[in-house]
Amino acid sequence: xxxxxxxxxxxxxxxxxxxEFRRLWEESEPQxxxxxxxxxxxLEKKLSQRQLAKKADTTQAVISRVESMAVNPSVxxxxxxxxxxxxKLEIKxx
Length: 94
Known about the structure:
Elements: H1 8-15, H2 19-44, H3 49-55, H4 60-67, H5 75-84
Helix pairs in contact: 3-4
């Protein structure tokens, strides 16, 4: 049996044809964007998770769970993290 190689983009394109998968994918997008923005801001400041946690008066485990998308962070937590990074949290309805 011959195995066909498939790229991640090809797999995603195929999966997005399934309405239920597409709905779940689209629902997770805001959390994904927030997570990417948090990681980017933390790395730009050259902070470890532990250092950010200390500045935000939380634990490294909390930062890890947020960055791995294991939890859906509250607006309050995102505000606290943004402030610790010297950033402003902005939420938009589009």
